[in-house]
Amino acid sequence: MTTTEQPRAPQFPLHRGCPFAPPEQATEFRAEGAPRRVRIWSGAQPWLITRHDQIREVLGATDRFGADVTVPGFPSTSDAQPHVEGDLFFRKDGAEHLPTRRVLNPDFTAKRSEALRPRMIELTDQLIDRLETMERPVDLIEHFALALPTVIICEVLGVPPEDSPRVHEASKKVVQLSISKDEKLAAMQDMHDVLQKHAERKRTEPDNGLLSRLVNEYVDEKGQFDFDYAIRLGMLAISAGHETTANMIGLGILALIREPEQRRILLSDPDKYAATCVEEMMRYWSMVQTEPRRVCLQDTEIGGVLIRAGEGVICNLPAANRDPDVFDNPEVLDITRVERRHIGFGFGVHQCLGQNLSRVEMQVAWPRLFQRLPDLRLTVDETDLHFHNDALTYGLEELPVTW
Ligand code: HEM
User: Fold this and answer.
1) Can you tell me the distance from the alpha carbon of 234 to that of 154, in angstroms, rounded to the nearest whole number?
2) Which residues form a coiled coil (predicted)?
């Protein structure tokens, strides 16, 4: 076991040199085996965990690694993060986490998400109809990938269709890298105002959407949290699912354009391959690239290294999901792969709340798009595509196509 400082702590986030692979340094660290220190914006040097088994160990040991962003030593993403997210359940542990998660769970079960499949097919078809009327090249990020998740999450929440474009515009700005902080804050305020308006209305006009349930059952009846917290949970559901699912839809389209054999297999029997295609794309892209983060609560040895209480830990999902000890030919995209132990949606008690919903969205979006537009192709050279490399989630800024 070693407690000595590692010689070199690279700046985190690490960059992906090849857009289709994890950062080279993360791959090297995984091959070396032990956790390695990285340097974050504040100068702190949390441990980076890259091996699949070690990440599962960290995320599974909730008594030794906590998710509370306000605990000293948590490797936060900015000075503001503990203040902005500090009271939200997903940045908490135990009794401050689970009860709220249980409140949200019923709207995101596999069964509830599956029930939305026909609606997703209808919406996907409408989006493709609209694409067909547009002048080409068309940017599929803006006009396809970003649109589907927002409309669906609005329906889960019970935000009526006339307001979903407003939520869509606001959530697009929240995740856009090129706009100012003030514009982002204004967009968040707008999203807040829309949800507040509808949440108020649900007090007199209840329905079976999530907002109505939060306000009537958990704010007014049980007093489990206050009205503003209910709105912030709604905003969390929108923002957590929007950028992630949209980026995955975009990345998946790119992969299917550049790998015709995988596209052929998917279209040969979408009922059979859509589900395995989603799991493989989640593994292959591992687009949540700077999380999960935890703070060590009790000295613990991981991979031969002593991690001390109060030290931060960052899990690197891209490297773990290409771990050759778990996946055969990990660099190869194979939508018929049967090994399903990827951790693209995280692992343990904090694993993704919305995973069932995004799974069905991707299962619908990819086959439908290529069935209807079989000649879909890029209008720029692959090397001219721009990926957001430093962001929490990896993805394409634009995906210009024609057919
Ligand atoms: C492809 C799409 C998505 C990906 C890749 C993704 C990924 C993840 C990951 C890796 C985590 C674990 C974070 C951690 O352990 O610290 C997580 C948690 C979470 N995700 Fe997702 N997510 C996706 C879609 C969604 C959607 C559609 C929602 C909508 C509700 C959502 C809501 C959440 C929430 C609320 C948490 C925190 C859960 C908790 O702490 O108990 N995600 N997600």
Assistant:
1) 9
2) none
Per-residue confidence band for 170, with pLDDT thresholds at 50, 70 and 90: confident
- pLDDT one-digit tens code per residue, 259-272: 999 999 999 999 99
pLDDT at 176: 65
**Cα-Cα-Cα-Cα dihedral sign, residues 181, 186, 190, 195:** positive
Q: Which of 74, 91, 232, 352 to probe ligand 1 with, by most ligand atoms within 8 A of CB?
A: 352
Tokens of 158: 């019970």
Six token digits for residue 252: 């998946």
**Ordered domains of the chain (ranges, CATH):** 24-402 (1.10.630.10)
Band of pLDDT at residue 184, cut at 50, 70 and 90: confident
Q: Is the CB of 68 under 6 A from ligand 1?
A: no
Q: Is the CB of 353 under 6 A from ligand 1?
A: yes
For residues 47 and 307, the answer to whether their CB atoms sit within 8 Å is yes
* Ligand 1 centroid to residue 8 C-alpha, Å: 32
Q: With CA atoms as reference, report the closest residue to 232 among 188, 270, 178.
A: 188
Enumerate the β-bridge partners of residue 138.
Answer: 401
Cβ of 294 less than 6 Å from ligand 1: no
Q: Is 292 in the pocket of ligand 1 (CB under 6 A)?
A: yes
CB 165 within 8 A of CB 150: no
CA angle 178–182–188, rounded 5-degree value: 90
Q: Check pocket membership of 48 for ligand 1, CB cut-off 6 A.
A: no
Lowest mean pLDDT segment, chosen from 136-140, 213-217, 242-246: 242-246
Whether pLDDT at 178 is above 90: no
Task: Report d(CA 396, CA 248) in Å as an integer.
Answer: 9
Predicted pLDDT of residue 81: 87
Angle CA 287–400–367, to nearest 5: 65
Structure-token pair, residue 179: 């706009």
Q: What's the gap in Å between 10 CA and the centre of ligand 1?
A: 27
DSSP symbols for 108-148: GSHHHHHHTHHHHHHHHHHHHHHHHTSPSSEEHIIIIITHH
345 lines ligand 1 (CB under 6 A): yes
